[in-house]
From TrEMBL:
Gene3D superfamilies on file: Ypt/Rab-GAP domain of gyp1p, domain 3 (1.10.472.80)
Pfam family, one: RabGAP-TBC
Protein name: Carabin
InterPro entries, alphabetized: Rab-GAP-TBC_dom, Rab-GAP_TBC_sf, Rab_GAP_TBC_domain
Length: 124
């Protein structure tokens, strides 16, 4: 079983771990995601399979990769949680996303200023 196998068992397992972390660390965000029907398998595979290369500016990606190679897989979870918090961490952000499409859009539309390498990595 792995990330790139036919059933992507490792991605599914990591999605369960990510959900547990969300529930514990960002309970309001977790509740919102549940209410609008956004499970981690709708956004997490793109992040984890591409090591955030499609979701972050390139200088930030390099910093994430450096941390990943240095510290291991836990960095993927920390970066993912940071992205979710930046997108949906405030009540106002969640209220602006009443449905599935708006919520997925918010996860993909984090302001670039928040994704600059120094700013972003200080929050991971």
């Amino acid at each position: 079983p792995g990330y790139y196998g036919p059933h992507m068992e490792a991605v599914q397992l990591d999605a369960e771990v990510f959900t547990a972390l969300l529930r514990r660390l960002l309970p309001r965000v977790h509740k919102h995601l549940q209410q609008v029907g956004v499970g981690p398998l709708l956004y997490l595979p793109e992040w984890f399979l591409c090591l955030f290369a499609r979701s972050l500016p390139f200088p930030t990606v390099l910093r994430v990769w450096d941390a990943f190679l240095s510290e291991g897989v836990k960095v993927l979870f920390r970066v993912g949680l940071t992205l979710v918090r930046l997108a949906l961490g405030t009540t106002e952000q969640r209220l602006a996303c009443p449905g599935l499409l708006e919520t997925l859009g918010a996860l993909r539309a984090i302001p670039p200023t928040q994704l600059q390498e120094e700013v972003f990595m200080s929050q991971v």
